Structures are given as structure tokens and as C-alpha cells.
Amino acid sequence: MKVKPECYPCIMRALLKTARRVSEDEWLLRKVLGETMDVLRNSHTERTPPDIAAESYIRVAKLLGNRDPYADERRDLNKLAKKVLPAAEKLINAAADPLFAALKIAAVANQLDALTTELSSPQKILDAYDAAPFHAQDYEEFRNDVQNAATLLFIFDNAGEIVFDTLLIECLKKVNKNLSVTGVVRRAPMFNDATYEDAADAGVDRLASLTDCGVDVVGTPLHTCSKQFRDLFLSSDLVLAKGQGNYETLEGEVRPAQPFAGKAVYFLLTIKCEVIASFIGRSVGDAVLIKEG
């Protein structure tokens, strides 16, 4: 998805928020905004929002002298999610269709990066699960694909929500006992995206092998990922990608006439902005499972 005018102030806010995790010095904050504006000013309109955000993050992190301003938040998000996990697991096990329930709770958990202060108790996240609309018109096709797949590439999004992704992987393996899952994380810190350390802390490594896309990015821009990762992407029977960043970078690369056209990808996310809501045709706050490619 190409960057829209509305994306620019959003990127600015994200980098200012990042800087404030390190310092409240106004001179430094102005330098951070200036650095971000320089990236925005020199970015062509064919770039995706995550691509611009990633370049801004790397430059700002260097300016701050801190490559990982979100380290504490990622640990806290995982800790918070683990408190909710038993209640979430109970809800999934009681559902008429546990896989559908696991997909919805994983999609609702995609809010964790934006709503950390609100999701402070198990009941609140369960309330969010009950309240959030879940549009999953491609669910039956997804379930059928899971049953027939030998390999699944699961592209994770944020720390915190990755804890709930373990419940989803467990359900996927119950639907297909022979399913081999490879999880994709960040090789280096990038905002609050899940890293190898976060995935291991969440327990993903007991359910799936772990890899990264070979570059320091936000989302999964295939044209810049390593050849090794692109080969893995293309050879996987099924691809499931979490979150807006992965949607913004991947959906355009699997559309007709694009380099990876014909490779189906399922996206699981909560819509967090009007740009994505308009693009998908849903509302902000909706949880969705959609297929592209």
C-alpha cells in the first residue's frame, strides 16, 4: 500500500513517541522531528508507510544513541499478555469452533501495541474480544487450506500479542497434526515488533522454528528481503501475516502484475486507522481475516 498524506503525521507521532522513551529534552526532540521530516520530505510516493517508518526509526535511534527504546515495553507487553493467557485459552477451548475463536482473539490482541494501558486485566481483553466485530469472510477457505498444508509461514507482528499467537498455533496444529510452522520475527529491534528474544519468552520456539526476513524493516517488503526469505515465502504452502505493517507491505506485492502475484497470503489484524479502514472497506477497531493474492 502506497503512502498516503494522512500517514505522514502518523509517522511523525510514532517517532516522537519513540524519542520520548529515551529523553524529554526539547532540543533532542526537535532534532528527532527534523530527522523524521527529512526522511518524509525525501520519500517518493511509491514507498509504503512501514518502509518510511523503518528508515526514520533507524536514523532516529542513531541520533538518540539507543537502538532499542521499546525494550522495556516489549517485555511488559509479554508479561501482560501472559496474565490474560489462561482466560483466553479457556475461552478458546469452550468455543464451538476453537480455531475461529483463536483467530479472533489473536486479531483482537493485535491492539496491544496501541492499547497497553487499557488492557491491564484479563477481563478487559476478554471484553475487547466480545465487543470487537470480526470479519472473516475467508475463514472457511483458510481452514481448508490449513487442513491441506504441509508448511505454514507465520509472520508475527508485535510483542505481547505474540503470546496469543501461541494459542493460535496450537489450534492450527490440532486441525492439522502434521503442519510444520515457521515463525518470522525481527532480527533486530524495530519499534515494539517481536524479536527472537520476545518470541522465545512467549514460548513460540516450542511450537515453531524461527527465522527473520534478512533485513531491518517494518512489515515484510519482499523486494528488499533476503533471497533466502523470499524462497521460503514462495515455497510455503500457507502464509499468515499479522498486523497492519505486514498488510501495508505485502498486499501490494501479491496483487496481479506484481512480482509475487498469485501467492496467496492471509492477513489477520485489527484496523487501527482510517486509511486502512477505507482501503479494506471496514471500520477502525474491526478485527479482520482477509485473503490477498
Summary of the model, kept short:
50% of the residues lie in helices and 11% in strands. By secondary structure, it is an alpha/beta fold. Helix 2 packs antiparallel against helix 3, helix 4 packs across helix 6 and helix 4 runs parallel beside helix 8 (161-175).
Characterization of this structure:
With 293 residues, the chain is an alpha/beta fold. It has two domains: 7-64, Helicase, Ruva Protein, domain 3, CATH 1.10.8; 71-292, 3-Layer(aba) Sandwich (Rossmann fold), CATH 3.40.50. Helix content is 50%, strand content 11%. The chain has twelve helices and seven strands. The protein has a seven-stranded mixed sheet with strand order 1-7-6-5-2-3-4, sandwiched between helices. Strand 3 (180-184), helix 9 (196-202) and strand 4 form a beta-alpha-beta unit. Helix 4 runs antiparallel to helix 5 and helix 4 (71-94) packs parallel to helix 8. The radius of gyration is 18 Å and the shape is globular. The two termini are 14 Å apart. The model is unreliable at 114-119 (pLDDT under 50).
The low-confidence runs, each spanning 5 or more residues with pLDDT under 50, are 114-119
Distance between the termini: 14 Å
Summarize the biggest pleated sheet. 7 strands, mixed
CATH topology of the largest domain: Rossmann fold
CATH H-level homologous superfamily name of the largest domain: Uncharacterised protein PF01937, DUF89, domain 3
Q: What share of the residues lie within helices?
A: 40-55%
Tertiary shape = globular
- Separate helix tally: 12
